[in-house]
Amino acid sequence: APEQALELAGRIRARLADGVLVGPDHYRPTMSIGIVIAGPDDVPITALRDADTAMYRAKERGRDRTEWFDPSLHRATVASFELERELRDAIERGQLHLVFQPILDLDTDEVRSCEALVRWTHPERGELGPDEFIPVAESSGLVVPLGTWVLRHALAAMKEWPNAVRVSVNLSPRQLAEPDLFALVRDALEEFGVHASRLILEVTETAVLQDPTAAARTISTLRALGLSVVIDDFGTGYTSLSFLRDYRLDGLKIDRSFITDLEHGSTAIVDAIICMSGALGLNVVAEGVETLAQLEQIRSLGCRYIQGYLVSPPVASDELPFMKLPRAATELGGRRPG
Asked: Quick one: average pLDDT of 125-149?
């Protein structure tokens, strides 16, 4: 009966909470449990599969808990596997493309860098944004070849850009942990003839916090190439000030949630981030700027760079603002007309 299964799971977890002795050492393990009530027509392998699915749901929701299986879990798992298979094919069949979102320098009114963002033109579902497939890529490991694809295509697009413009490319936690990341980035820069100073790699706080020592070592090695490394979505994790100080990052991007909430209490937080970054010599980009009111607040707080729909939505490379100017004028630092 369901009540008996739940009671048994509770007793098991309670016993483990008391801890176990292994020689002289005392450990307190935790347990994630998945429960399924099998019907009379269910075969054992199906029941085990469904219980396993429920167990992984327990892990996703914080571990050390019990979750019941329901059919929606199985449907979600099947859909995830199907999307993974389709994404693998999409990389090989040319269904992916890049768009770029400009980052505006408020001091000069010039676009000096753009963030590369991947999109998927699905043959049946149409245009898919990253939120719809990046989590599957992360969980399956496909994010590594996908990240390589993004880096190479972003560098290829820069062949047509003015030399003064840089590109930002996101690194996932899995990519940051790859042992051959340095060689991959170095070889791609050489292959496409892009100077390392024109490349900015963005890493999230989550990626850094998974293994701060290893992340710091990788970041230091990458910066030795001459490129820049910035922390993306800053403020959503718990990156320590000592990390920002000791590992000589080049900048950070304030998470868009703080910009959205500027009128409702996050002004002090944004001000503190900008002041702290200035003291450490870090460039700061405010993400998600969509209104003139947000722009004026950001400007008054002393933030120099902004990114968001107020500047431009993500667009194809040939639609970027500087691509509509004479190349020579942009390379000389000319402002946009008007």
From this structure: 85
Contact by Cβ (8 Å): 202, 219:
no
Other beta carbons within 10 Å of 143: 23
Q: Are 156 and 169 a contacting pair, CB within 8 Å? A: no
Tokens read off for 149:
């694809």
CA 334 to chain centre: 33
Which DSSP string corresponds to 156-206?
A: HHGGGS-TT-EEEEEE-HHHHT-TTHHHHHHHHHHHHT--GGGEEEEEEHH
Looking up tokens 């607040």 gives 297
> In this structure, what DSSP letter does residue 315 have?
B
Nearest one of 84, 219, 60 to 138, comparing CA atoms: 84
Which residue in this structure is represented by tokens 């980052």? 103
Per-residue pLDDT of 221-249, as tens digits, reads 999 999 999 999 887 666 656 667 777 78
**How far, in whole angstroms, is CA 224 from its chain's centroid?**
23
Note whether 35 and 50 are within 8 A (CB).
no
Encoding tokens for residue 123?
A: 């043959």
The residue-averaged pLDDT of 23-50 equals: 81
103: left (phi over 0), alpha (psi -120 to 50) or beta: beta
More confident residue, 335 or 109: 109
Interhelix angle 181-192/143-157, nearest 10 degrees:
20
- H-state helical runs in the chain: 2-17, 44-60, 71-93, 134-140, 143-157, 173-176, 181-192, 205-210, 212-223, 241-246, 256-260, 267-280, 292-300, 327-331
Question: Which residue type does 293 have?
Answer: A
CA distance 96 to 7: 49
Beta-carbon contacts of residue 23 (< 8 Å; ≥ 6 apart): none
Measured distance between the N- and C-terminal CA atoms of the chain, rounded to whole angstroms: 74
